[in-house]
Amino acid sequence: MPESWWGNAIFSLIPTIMLGLIFWMVLRMIIRGDRTARREYDRIEAEERAKAGLPPKGERPLAAADAAAEGDAQPQVASTPPADAPPRA
Length: 89
Prior knowledge:
Layout: H1 5-52, H2 62-70
């Protein structure tokens, strides 16, 4: 053990700094690995969608896009009874 004040300060801070660096490196590797895995998954999914003849992810199919553009699409209406209707038995 160091006998001087500065030696004690450095001797006590080095383990904390080292553990912090190890923690940072582990988290960095986990986040980078996740990012790489997601990128690869998206690439593989795009290839499979292209093989199946599907549009790229995030695009609507042409038939639905055309119907919505022309106004032919029927709006989805929830079937709720009026407020003054008696409760169903």
